[in-house]
Amino acid sequence: MSMPLTIRGKQMLEAELKKLIHEERPAVIRQIEEARSHGDLSENAEYDAAKEKQALVEGRIQDIQGKIAGAEVVDPSTIKSETVVFGATVKIMDLESEDEVTYQIVGVDEADVKAGYISILSPLARALIGKRVGDVVVVASPKGEKEYEILSLLFK
Description:
alpha/beta, Helix Hairpins, 2 domains, two-stranded parallel ribbon, 39% helix, elongated
């Protein structure tokens, strides 16, 4: 199953992948070589820690490569829609507090609520998908149900 990813999200993953391959991987290899030079590997905590870190780095490299390979990259600026879809920037108002917030609906790896990016899999994004400006959505939250009105919809 392909996961949607914005162009920004793909660039973030590619930057992380480049750092892992060109900085993290060589650093871990050096740590392993250094630990090996200390002799008996059976009781060498530095060697064990370096090998564990190597496994994490290699796992993340494979994870990112898989995500990029299987991603459906979406350029939000090319979307023409009257309804909320992946990549949309949506301004909503909490009907109880009248607080207004703006979120862009993005891929799982791009999500950063504080920066205004919510995951396509989040309850709020799932409630917003397919709705129009003026619609009210109900979202279950830990504090009970919350109602939001969609104030505007942008594709940028």
